[in-house]
Amino acid sequence: MNHRPFEDWLLNQDPLTPAQKLELREHLQTCSSCSALAEVDLALKSVRQVGPVEGFADRFQVRLAAQRKMLKRRNTIGFFILTLCAVAILTWVAWPVLRGVLASPSAFLASWLSYLVSLWTSIQAMSHVSGLFLRIVPNFIPPVVWMVVLVSAGGWFLLWVLSLMKITKVPQGV
Q1: Domains in the chain: how many in total?
Q2: 100 lies in a domain?
Q3: What is the per-residue pLDDT across 43-64, written as a single tens digit (0 to 9) for each?
Q4: Domain extent at residue 12
Q5: Dihedrals φ, ψ of 33, to 5°?
Q6: CA 85/CA 155 separation, integer angstroms
Q7: Is the Cβ–Cβ distance between 43 and 13 less than 8 Å?
Q8: Statement to judge: residues 38 and 63 lie in one domain
Q9: Whole-model pTM above 0.85?
C-alpha cells in the first residue's frame, strides 16, 4: 500500500481539498500506521507550548561569554606552551652549532664564508665542465644515435603521460 501521499498530507500544514480529506479519512480507517501517525500529530498539536523561563536568554549569553573567555585563555596558554616546547626542541637540536657560534662567532662566520666561497667555485667549475662537455660530445655521436635517443625519450615521455592519465582518471557519471 502506498502511504506516501497520506503521510505527506498528515505531516504538512497545507490545507486539503474536500476530495483529499475524504480519501484521507477512508485511508485512516484501513491503515493502522497512518492512523497512529494522525493520533500522534493530533496529540502534538493539542499540547500547550511553554516558553523559556524569564531571563533565560540573558543567562545563556553570560554563560556563552564565559565559555568563550575560558576557551580564548586556554588557547593562549596552549599556544605559549607549544611555542616554548618548539623553541626548546630547536635549541636542543641546534646546540652543537649554537655552542660553536657562542664560543667564537668570528670562527663560525669565517667557516661559513669559506663554505659559501667553495660552494660558489664548485658551481662555476661544474658549469664550465658541462659547457665544454655539451660542445664536444655532440661531435662524437652520429646523428642517427641522437635520433634514436630522442625518439626513445619521446616514447618514454608519452608512456609516462598516458599512464598518469589512466591512474588519475576521475570516474564520470552519477
Answers
A1: 2
A2: no
A3: 877 888 788 888 888 999 999 9
A4: 4-46
A5: -65, -50
A6: 52
A7: no
A8: no
A9: no
